[in-house]
Amino acid sequence: MPLTEMAVWSGDTVRRDEEGFLYFVGRSDDLIKVSGYRISPTEVEEMAYATGLVEEAVVFGVPHPELGQAVVLLAVAPGASVPALLKACQQRMPAYMVPAHIALRDEAFPRNPNGKIDRKSLQAACLDLFDKNTAA
């Protein structure tokens, strides 16, 4: 019996509108997809640590109208500046991996009950901020 449909699991989460069009919502895994490149958040975090400017780092993707997603780097980096960290990232990373957005803070990231950085709460707060800025 010939196949009439084909399904591919991409790891993308989408929504379908009334007309059947699909819209990208997010990823079901942690990989970030920028212009067709698949980026591991851990790899970007390790390169951020390698700059020597960062004590803690969290990387995730946010929706981007042209690229699919954009890389966001949240970092605990006392004494560092966004331009200095961006320049250090540009020296160590391929262009598609360089964070489009960098936010620095002085205090440690929140932890989950296992003592690990609470990525989900940081990402949710950041996405809320992006949504508010986009709506303004």
Quick rundown:
The protein has 136 residues and is of the alpha+beta class. The chain has helices spanning 41-50, 82-92, 119-135, and strands spanning 12-16, 22-27, 32-34, 37-39, 56-64, 68-76, 101-105.
Explain this structure to me?
This protein has helices at residues 41-50, 82-92, 119-135, and strands spanning 12-16, 22-27, 32-34, 37-39, 56-64, 68-76, 101-105. The chain is of the alpha+beta class and 136 residues long. It has one domain (32-135): ANL, C-terminal domain (GMP Synthetase, Chain A, domain 3, 2-Layer Sandwich). A three-stranded mixed beta sheet has the order 5-6-7, sandwiched between helices. It has a two-stranded antiparallel sheet with strand order 1-2. Strands 3-4 form a two-stranded antiparallel ribbon. It is globular and about 60 Å long. The model has no long low-confidence stretch (mean pLDDT 84).
Please tag this protein with its features:
globular, GMP Synthetase, Chain A, domain 3, alpha+beta, 136 residues, two-stranded antiparallel sheet
Number of strands: 7
Task: Label the overall shape.
Answer: globular
Number of domains: 1
Main β-sheet, in a few words? 3 strands, mixed
On the 0 to 100 scale, the average pLDDT is 84
| Helix share, percent | 25-40%
Could you name the ranges where pLDDT drops below 50 across 5 or more consecutive residues? none
Structural class of the helices, strands and pairings?
alpha+beta
* Side-by-side strand order of the widest sheet: 5-6-7
Rg for CA atoms: 17 Å
Oligomer: single chain
Number of helical stretches of at least 4 residues? 3
Order of helices and strands: EEEEHEEHEH
CATH superfamily: ANL, C-terminal domain
CATH class term: Alpha Beta
Please report the distance between the alpha carbons of the first and last residues.
54 Å
Instruction: Indicate the proportion of strand residues.
Output: 25-35%
* Second CATH tier, the architecture: 2-Layer Sandwich
